[in-house]
Amino acid sequence: MGRSRNNRRGPAAEAVVEAVDGGLAQLVPDPDRARAWTLLIDGAPQSHVDLDDPAYLSFEYQRRLGHVIDLAAPPGKPVQAVHLGGGAFTLARYVAATRPRSTQQVVERDAALVQLVRRALPLDPGARIRVRSVDAREGLAKVPDGWADLIVADVFSGARTPAHLTSTEFLDEVRRALKPSGVYAANVADGPPLAHLRGQIATAAARFPEVALIADPAVLRGRRFGNAVLAASALPLPLAELTRRAACDPHPARVEHGRQLTDFTGGAAPVTDEAAVASPAPPPSVFD
Predict the structure, then answer these.
(1) How many CA atoms lie within 13 A of 85 on its CB side?
(2) What is the pLDDT along the chain (288 residues), one digit of tens a residue?
(3) Which site from 139, 179, 217, 250 is most exposed, i.e. has the minimal number of CB atoms within 10 Å?
(4) Alpha helices in 14-167 (DSSP H)
């Protein structure tokens, strides 16, 4: 079990491997970036962090969440953000780097993972980031009414989103915690026949008047398992710029909204707490 003694590593750095509450965590050094690491839990990639450049987002779904974050407020303007699911705090670091003086709360129930990340990949002490080691919905319930400009949900347990974070009742809590102008963004993972994704779109549309989906066309066509980013707000979303940024990404994505998104949803019903189930487990080939 190799362990890096600090976050300044040389070319022969070893992976950090530790048991955490959610499984076996690995921090693997990025061979192409001097102080960058990938976090895996039980072999599933969770986060990538570059300590020298926290505005760098390696994973395609995190770049798409980054586009939503960039457009949630004028460039550089500080925001109040809640991150449900912490991982290696990639998106909280991104907000801190691109929107200095932002105030953020990270809710990550895996306390052992939080301790590992804080030790091996320390946060900038000047960043206003508070981390709570509680369940995501429990942590969200403690956010004051109308506090957040931005709420990002990226919660996985055993590579699946827990059922209680997929329902209209959960989104009622999101709406309560958001400012009237606030934006909600969620990472949704699914594969053919996309029943989970369609249900999540219907659930968001039942609670937000404005909804958009950012995804790889192959995922939308049900050709492979992958991640889609759901964005929702009470106010119109910046669709033209979101579309442009998604199309210009190294892994181009489509933005669906309006009638096209309704048609894609195919009459799926909103998910309630009573009927909610966890998102489907990805096939083993996804991580090959």
Answers:
(1) 23
(2) 333 334 544 555 799 999 999 999 999 999 999 999 999 999 989 999 999 999 999 999 999 999 999 999 999 999 999 999 999 999 999 999 999 999 999 999 999 999 999 999 999 999 999 999 999 999 999 999 999 999 999 998 878 999 999 999 999 999 999 999 999 999 999 999 999 999 999 999 999 999 999 999 999 999 999 999 999 999 999 999 999 999 999 999 999 999 999 999 999 999 999 999 999 999 877 655
(3) 250
(4) 60-71, 90-98, 111-120, 136-141
DSSP-assigned states of every residue in 130-156 = EEE-S-HHHHHHTSPTT-EEEEEE---
Q: Single out the residue of 70, 132, 59, 134 nearest to residue 102, CA to CA.
A: 70
Q: How far apart are CA 33 and CA 36, in angstroms?
A: 5
What's phi and psi for 79, nearest 5 deg?
-130, 165
Amino acid at 267: G
| Spatial contact of 109 and 128, defined as CB atoms under 8 Å apart | no
What is the CB-side half-sphere exposure of residue 77 using CA atoms within 13 A? 11
- What single DSSP character describes residue 261? H
Phi and psi at 115, nearest 5°, equal -65, -40
Taking the whole predicted model, whether its pTM rises above 0.90 is answered as yes
Strand order of the β-sheet with 23-29 is 16-20, 23-29, 36-41, 44-50
- Helix, strand, or coil here: 41? strand
Kindly state the helix (H) or strand (E) to which residue 107 belongs, with its residue range: strand 103-107
